[in-house]
Amino acid sequence: MQAVVQVILGLNSWTGSRFLAQAAALLSMPVFLGTIVVFLCWLRRCRLNAEAFAPGTHKYTVGGAVGVWFIPVVMWWAPRRVVVDLWRAGGSTGGAWVIDAWWVAWIAKSVGVTAYMVIDLQGNPNAPLVVLVDVVAVILAILLVGRITATQSAKIKA
Fold first, then answer.
1. Distance (Å) of CA 10 to CA 6, 20, 146
2. What is the value of pTM for the model shown?
3. How confident is the model at residue 83 (pLDDT cuts 50, 70, 90)?
4. By C-alpha distance, which of 90, 108, 87, 89 is closest to 98?
5. 132-153 pLDDT, tens per residue?
6. Cα distance between residue 5 and residue 10, in whole Å
7. Residues in CB range of 74: below 8 A, 6 or more apart
8. Closest-CA residue to 110 (of 143, 76, 84)
9. Nearest-CA neighbor of 4 among 135, 145, 155, 140?
10. What does the alpha-carbon distance between residue 83 and residue 27 come to, in Å, rounded to a whole number?
């Protein structure tokens, strides 16, 4: 849903549609916050599962796995480590490129887009490049969530 809102915002910047602007304005923040809550709940659940699969092998506690997202500067590397631990605990082999691709896209979204807006003070926060980075980050996050969930589900069934 977040990707859809981003596309609507991008379309609005290209078309100047007042309807799209109002729809996006109403949807943007609730969808964004909802996405964060759902993702962090999923991450916590996966971290709990990972502790059962590989006890004592994780760098961060269950609370720390969620908390690192809220610590300035630490949030630029620690969440990737949490996800790598989940990946390994689930017994995933190969395909770890998804973690790195997702992480690069997330950093590009969070740091790169902010830098773009600071450099170009008149810049459009819904410019095509910004929307593209957002959509790529969302797609990679969906792939990551799907793979980790499938791996953990298979391990639970086994």
1. 6, 10, 26
2. 0.81
3. very high
4. 87
5. 888 898 899 999 999 999 999 9
6. 9
7. 68
8. 76
9. 135
10. 29
**Confidence (pLDDT) at 50:** 95
CB 81 within 8 Å of CB 60: yes
Q: Which residue has the tokens 């923040």?
A: 29
Report DSSP state, residue 83.
H
Tokens matching residue 96: 């770890």
d(CA 128, CA 141): 20
Q: Which of 29-33, 89-93, 100-104 has the highest mean pLDDT?
A: 100-104
Place of tokens 């690192």: 68
Q: For the chain, how are helix, strand and coil distributed in percent, rounded to 5?
A: 80, 0, 20
Is the pLDDT at 63 greater than 80? The verdict is yes
